[in-house]
Design a protein that fits this description.
alpha+beta; 57 residues
Length: 57
């Protein structure tokens, strides 16, 4: 779910069985970041970011 944020492209991620967390695209470094409390495998976070990054057709 996209979150209104004036500074970053930000999304809330809610996965069944996990706490929700946020990911955002840092404008300076152009790298995706995830909340420190994201208790999920880093590969899963990468997969989420890949899906968000795909252009909408």
């Amino acid at each position: 779910m996209r979150i209104q944020d004036d500074f970053h492209e930000t999304y809330a991620v809610v996965l069944d069985g996990y706490h929700s967390f946020c990911i955002w695209l840092d404008n300076k470094s152009k790298k995706w970041c995830a909340s420190k409390n994201a208790a999920i495998d880093p590969d899963a976070i990468d997969e989420i970011i890949n899906r968000i990054s795909l252009p909408v057709s």
